[in-house]
UniProtKB/TrEMBL annotation:
Family, similarity comment: Belongs to the sulfotransferase 1 family.
Domain Sulfotransferase: 1-67
EC numbers, comma separated: 2.8.2.-
Organismal lineage: Eukaryota, Metazoa, Chordata, Craniata, Vertebrata
Coiled-coil residue spans: none
Protein name as annotated: Sulfotransferase
Gene Ontology MF terms: sulfotransferase activity
Signal peptide, first to last residue: none
Pfam families, alphabetized: Sulfotransfer_1
Entry keywords, A to Z: Transferase
InterPro entries, sorted: P-loop_NTPase, Sulfotransferase_dom
Superkingdom assignment: Eukaryota
Organism, as annotated: Fregata magnificens (Magnificent frigatebird)
Length: 67
């Protein structure tokens, strides 16, 4: 899924997918390092997670995030 979203974000150009590791393109939300990387990435951000939906922050549900 991350590869597909990365290609959509880069308008189908695979250069970004090939040159940037997946942990930098879509860092894990539940790790401190991943959260720092996600905040530093330009918008629109790609974020990965395996958290159950009930553990997501409440602000997430009122945001414009796409899941």
């Amino acid at each position: 899924m991350l590869e597909i979203l990365s290609l959509i974000r880069s308008d189908g150009d695979p250069h970004w997918c090939r040159s940037v590791p997946n942990w930098d393109r879509g860092p894990w939300l539940e790790t401190v390092l991943g959260l720092r990387r996600a905040r530093g990435n330009p918008r629109p951000r790609l974020i990965s997670s395996h958290l159950p939906i009930q553990l997501f922050p409440k602000a997430f549900f009122s945001s414009k995030a796409k899941v």
